[in-house]
Amino acid sequence: MSDKGGFRPDADIMRMLADFRLPGMPDMEALAAAQRRNLEALSAANRVALEGAQAVARRHMEIMQSSMTEMTEAMKSIATQESPQAKAARQAEMLKAAYERAVANMREVADLIQKSNTEALSLINHRFTEAMDEVKSLMGNKQG
Predict the structure, then answer these.
(1) Which of these, 56, 38, 74, lies nearest to 117 by C-alpha position?
(2) What are 115-144's pLDDT values in tens digits?
(3) Are 32 and 134 in contact (CB under 8 A)?
(4) Of 14, 23, 76, 100, which is the most exposed, with the fewest CB atoms less than 10 Å away?
(5) HEC profile for the chain?
(6) Do residues 4 and 122 make contact, with C-beta atoms less than 8 angstroms apart?
(7) What is the pTM of this model?
(8) Alpha-carbon distance 127 to 131, whole Å?
């Protein structure tokens, strides 16, 4: 073996595999390109999921801040009421309103999570379909 054709550690592994073709072996460059597209799709799905998680966290913080402000205002309004009956009626109204807001907020956060998950899964499903078409194409080229 001469130095010219010897093993070079810096050589591109995929190029070496592409040069080393056996009958029935798939196109290594096409496989490497498909793998890169798979990784890009996973990266995009992860990015969408992360952005969704950040949006949920931001919205959750906004809800908490709003709730604290509303609770402070509610305490002030209860303190100004004079009769115990008026205070009880006001507390019941505030409790009902707080419950309705909590349910609406939970629904909103759940919708944000669902939207993020749907987008991420859509990216992965789309890439999976493409990958299966690529495999069929590669196998079809090898049989022909």
Answers:
(1) 56
(2) 999 999 999 999 999 988 888 887 776 554
(3) no
(4) 23
(5) CCCCCCCCCCCCHHHHHHHCCCCCCCCHHHHHHHHHHHHHHHHHHHHHHHHHHHHHHHHHHHHHHHHHHHHHHHHHHHHHCCCHHHHHHHHHHHHHHHHHHHHHHHHHHHHHHHHHHHHHHHHHHHHHHHHHHHHHHHHHHHHC
(6) no
(7) 0.64
(8) 6
